[in-house]
Amino acid sequence: MGFVVLTTPELKIKNVLYNDTPLTFLEKGRILASIVQDKDRSKILDFSNNIKRGKGEFGYEINIPVEEKVKLYNFSGVKESEEIFLILASRLKEDILNQYDHFMKMNNQHVNKIRSLLKDQIITENNTVLSGKSAELYNEITEINNELMNVQRELTKTNKELDRQKERYYATLRSIGEGVIALGENKKVTFINESALNILNINKEIEGTFLSEHNIKVLNKNENDILEKIINKVCQSPQTIKKEDAKVISDQNEVFIDLTISPIEVSDDRLIGLVIVISDITQKKEQEKKLKKLAATDRLTNIMNRRMGTTYLQKQIERLKREDINLTVCFIDINDLKQVNDNYGHNEGDNLLKTAAQILNDNIRDTDAVARFGGDEFLIIFNDCDLEEAKVIWERVEKAIDDWNKNTEKPYRISLSRGFAQKTREDNLSLDDLVNKADERMYEKKMEYHNQK
Known about the structure:
Strand order of the largest sheet: 9-8-13-12-11-10
Strand content: 25-35%
Number of strands: 17
Largest sheet: 6 strands, antiparallel
Structural class: alpha+beta
Radius of gyration: 41 Å
Number of helices: 12
Mean pLDDT: 82
Order of helices and strands: EEHEEEHHEEHEEHEHEEEHHEHHEEHEH
């Protein structure tokens, strides 16, 4: 995006040769210095003075206010004659390079036109002007052409350096572990590295297409697709947005990721694209899952520990208040565990605890839960279940214990004392009240057991 104009040495526009910018005020008679930002007026005057001295100027960065914003342009220019300057301005160096052929074509048109007008007025020998009233002007034009050829060489050199830098940049992106996707100003994919293709499980060419064409979704914790929303937000208000613990889905492939989307801006804050960085955190999530399980599980019995059991019970109490359901708990104590430890060793005592925990867990409903509350204490949480229904379920536990006792070769028997407590929506029992009530009834049963021995 840029413009090419012919001006006087005072930078008064004589002709607008080319303009694909929003600078509609570029017109014949306008002074270029009047359209630039105040702080850059001395810079454009230096630019003009250097051209007057016969120097071809290249790469002056000058700001121009446009629609309440300031846009940065790179100015280049040469002296076409004592009265005419040829000036090119582009938004970026890449724009200058992209417009290079157009620029050189216009140069040739103007120089050749002037040369053809002078051709019949001069005498040359071996391509050197000898005489004629236009000889001096002809030589000046030749000098201008040489200046433009120098500009050509400078542009070619810059272009090669940009290509080398771009290749180094892309080589780095191709080799890193994170997935990297670059989107252009139109939001189409301009680059994607191998890591991103692997994370997205894509084995086809997607450069030049929209991500939405490939059924790629990024889900947040609420399972909402947030990819397009974030892309649009970054475009509207250029700022980096990060989303952790998201999930990318494509072609039936699911991967847990951390997502970062950043704007690509030039010095005048113009957005020219986006960079999406995808970090595969599947191993991290699996490790977190293991750690959470360890934190919530009793290591010996492999059921919920007291902390997790209490948290789970509190959630069920909150559910009871919302849904008006029944909730029953059963507090359990293993009888004679101390005697097993004393007579057969603590390893055998641990085996007793593990066996009891497995029997409890295997004989309750899938909707119920059991937790180890202490050394020899357990708590069963019967969800959406009243007291009588819980006692029916407990009968399955008692039968399983009887069967184990009949068939075991162990030198001891499993015996449990239990106490039930029910909570309804109308009562004011707290979690501690409910557990203590069940504990008290268990203690009564334990006294009965000892009295019968």
